[in-house]
Design goal:
It is built from twelve helices and eleven strands. The protein is α/β, with parallel strands linked by helices and 354 residues long. α10 packs across α11.
């Protein structure tokens, strides 16, 4: 009998919903929230009842019986660093989401909503591979400044999902492979997957590696220190340069990679920016190949920018000597969440304990 799941993926101004039977998507919907609606709440957790009501009303409109679900799955939030896995929303996990122990983010609501709806209908609730998944080897944590350790914040949900998808297609365990997975979206993360663990990864949010549509990536640290103390910018303005207004936004005033490609076809400067993006991503891949001692079974390209064949072809041309390249464009987060819960429900893996 098929397992029916309700998937809840909260974003800053939307809540994405998916209804699955096993891995078959029955329907999905994005519930939009206006800036005014969100602004009335002081904290992320205060939005819980507002979003829950919208979810339940939408399901009612679709004539979807809430009691027909076997499992409720939410997007994982900013928790304490944890290993990869599908986690039951325990009391301890719920409390940390409510208290925003890792910071305020809309994704914190995923587990909170899943637990509340699941409890009301008497079914289990889970989160899967939140962005704080941390499997770094100890040597990867040192940055050169003890006060500034390297941390693991990356697109864990999608990276793990495509890595396991590749392993399944090849008919081998994910734990038997060495992979380099490159997620290219609003942020970029490049991870070294060794025998089922991401032992090193470039921080996708605020520090390491290639620039992206919205993020500056690694910048010259001395020059950054001078900029911070120049008196020209506030702390908030500098942070915005690095996260939000960096990368494509800084150079070309757009975060749309499709627009960047159109600009690059007509303008040498835009072409240089696009070439630099590819160049930096390839440098990160090369670095992770060294982490894996050159023993790389496959390089996987994923995320929204991987729809651009000009980008994936250029990356393959530069790094194809390391290993073969497989492209899984997009980031099907709803399916990845459904698959994570299904592995536990079907007994393929045990639920992790937070």
């Amino acid at each position: 009998m098929a397992v029916k799941s309700l998937i809840i993926n909260p974003g800053s101004t939307s809540t994405k919903l998916g209804v699955f039977e096993d891995t078959t998507l029955l329907f999905e919907e994005t519930l939009r929230h206006t800036t005014e609606e969100i602004a009335q709440f002081d904290k992320i957790v205060d939005q819980k009842d507002f979003r829950k009501e919208m979810i339940l009303n939408f399901l009612k409109e679709k004539n979807e019986d809430i009691k027909s679900f076997d499992v409720i799955v939410g997007r994982g939030g900013l928790l304490k660093p944890i290993p990869s896995g599908t986690y039951a929303v325990s009391d301890a996990l719920l409390e940390d989401l409510k208290n925003a122990v890792g910071g305020e983010h809309a994704s914190n609501l995923g587990g909170i909503l899943a637990r509340e709806i699941g409890d009301e209908i008497g079914v289990p609730s889970y989160i899967v591979d939140p962005v704080v998944v941390d499997e770094l080897q100890d040597v990867a944590r040192l940055s050169g400044v003890p006060e500034l350790p390297r941390v693991s914040i990356f697109h864990a949900l999608n990276q793990k999902a495509v890595a396991k998808r590749y392993a399944k297609e090849k008919g081998v365990p994910y734990e038997s492979l060495n992979l380099i997975v490159v997620h290219m979206g609003g942020g970029v993360s490049v991870g070294a997957h060794e025998n089922g663990k991401v032992i090193d990864v470039f921080n996708a949010l605020s520090g390491d590696g290639a620039f992206s549509p919205e993020r500056a990536g690694a910048v010259p640290p001395g020059a950054l220190a001078d900029l911070c103390f120049s008196g020209k910018y506030t702390h908030k303005e500098v942070k915005k340069m690095l996260i939000g207004n960096g990368g494509f936004n800084a150079y070309l005033h757009t975060n749309d990679a499709r627009e960047v490609k159109k600009m690059a076809d007509q303008d040498e400067y835009a072409k240089l920016v696009l070439d630099a993006f590819v160049y930096q991503v390839c440098k990160d891949i090369g670095a992770q190949a060294a982490v894996l001692r050159g023993k790389v079974d496959q390089i996987i390209l994923t995320g929204g920018i991987a729809y651009g064949k000009h980008v994936t072809d250029a990356i393959e041309e530069r790094v194809g000597f390391i290993a073969g390249v497989t492209v899984y464009p997009g980031e099907d987060e709803l399916l990845a969440l459904a698959e994570g819960a299904l592995r536990v429900v079907n007994g393929e893996e045990a639920a992790a304990v937070y």
